């Protein structure tokens, strides 16, 4: 009877360990730490696209890149980052997501929000 209880306990411990090692991750958080998260935007004047949600953790490296068919200016609010685009010439900005919160990435010429950057505290 005692060996059956020990076997059940060991089996449960093994299952919990396997789940911890192989637990599912969601979204972009499954990326290896240390690698920058890359988000690319392709802009066109007549474009009406639903805003994207970009989710990262505090301290993650971010690379925003964009290309536009016309002159464009992107602004990441609160981080006060700007990305200026010439027609058909790709541009990018790198930064570390140090501030926790939700931040709008706005396309000034298009008059629309392209994305919301969500920065979560690192667990």
Describe the overall structure.
The protein has one helix and eight strands, in the order H-E-E-E-E-E-E-E-E. Helix content is 17%, strand content 43%. The chain has one domain (29-120): Cupredoxins -  blue copper proteins (Immunoglobulin-like). It starts with a helix and ends with a strand. The strands form two sheets. Strands 2-8-7-4-5 form a five-stranded mixed β-sheet, with no helix packed on it. The chain is elongated and about 75 Å long.
CATH class: Mainly Beta
Q: CATH superfamily name?
A: Cupredoxins -  blue copper proteins
By CATH, the architecture is named Sandwich
What name does CATH use for the topology? Answer: Immunoglobulin-like
**What is the count of DSSP helices, taking H or I runs of 4+ residues?**
1
- Look at the helices and sheets and give the structural class: alpha/beta
Going across the major beta sheet, what is the strand order? 2-8-7-4-5
Low-pLDDT runs of 5+ residues are: 12-30
On the 0-100 scale, what is the average pLDDT?
A: 79
- The tally of beta strands, per DSSP, is 8
Over the alpha carbons, how many angstroms does the gyration radius reach?
A: 21 Å
